[in-house]
User: Which sequence fits this backbone?
């Protein structure tokens, strides 16, 4: 294998450090600071392995993990967009496409294609793996909020109806997980943990 | 599937948040703060996928990823031990065993056994996957230091000979990666990036 091939891989690897500076709206349990997208990507990839048995139809858990390890990398250039931010969606898509082209473009050709395809599988939400990856990415911050007395919902003025609408794709990919979380969301509303 | 089964899985999932508070000695590129073990676990799991083709013998890249997603979870109870800290190794092993028992013990039985086995595969470094996972975990902070003018080496008084001795397992699992990094370590010594 040529040195140029390896050097391209290592350029990509070191570029990834930058995802550790991209902040989300959630605060990890017991911490004051905001969560970053790199530690979130670890958490949600492991979540997919943990909960894959709840996917309907069944999924290739390893592919879901790969999708989730890669799914937020475009935020290095495009930054994190809050789920409940309804503005600028078209602009977001264009920024993330450009980011994918630049960042995955650091890689040797075969890996550039493979990694871009995995990222697109998350964005497209057509395959069972893409849908389940998206469902995990929706469910995790809800569970964090339920454990956290609604921290990011309250800090950002998020209403119950928004949560239901935005997170309904969970029901499609893992109905058992939706059945579990729905009554807990209703209890959170009753407890005043939503705006 | 019973609700108790899912609740056990979610208890484990939320426990993982605590790994985001465990600090290492490395600072992510361009940042003043120390890296935490959750974001590191993401980085090194993705590294394994990226560089698996350099493993000799060949490895199951997906299993290496799973090993690396899990390998640092015991630090939630046992904290991070700096690689070059030569004291307290026996105590470290005992603390990590107890941590594995408690944390993986949150899971339903089948997953407890599967996750514990993956963690032990990292610790034992006997299988090609365990060895390559360990090699990635050694190589990543070296690459970060080489990109960072020796930041964690200099901050912690680490000498060239220590780096060579501690990181030699890379040569066994991925000789091409060792051949790449060795002359760069020698250049780092010449540049004064090691103590």
Assistant:
């Amino acid at each position: 294998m040529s040195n140029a091939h390896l050097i391209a891989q290592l350029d990509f690897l070191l570029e990834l450090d930058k995802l550790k500076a991209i902040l989300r709206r959630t605060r990890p349990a017991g911490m004051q600071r905001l969560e970053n997208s790199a530690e979130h990507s670890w958490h949600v990839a492991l979540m997919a392995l943990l909960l894959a048995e709840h996917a309907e139809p069944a999924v290739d858990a390893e592919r879901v993990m790969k999708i989730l390890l890669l799914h937020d990398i475009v935020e290095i250039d495009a930054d994190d967009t809050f789920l409940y931010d309804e503005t600028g969606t078209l602009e977001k898509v264009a920024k993330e496409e450009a980011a994918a082209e630049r960042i995955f473009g650091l890689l040797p050709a075969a890996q550039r294609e493979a990694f871009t395809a995995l990222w697109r599988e998350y964005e497209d939400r057509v395959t069972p793996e893409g849908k389940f990856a998206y469902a995990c990415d929706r469910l995790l911050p809800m569970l964090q909020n339920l454990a956290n007395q609604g921290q990011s919902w309250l800090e950002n003025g998020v209403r119950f109806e928004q949560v239901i609408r935005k997170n309904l794709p969970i029901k499609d990919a893992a109905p058992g997980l939706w059945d579990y979380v729905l009554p807990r969301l209703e209890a959170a509303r009753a407890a005043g943990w939503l705006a």
Chain A touches chain B through 46 residues (CB under 8 Å). Residues 128-147 of chain A form the longest helix (20 residues). The mean pLDDT of chain A is 96.
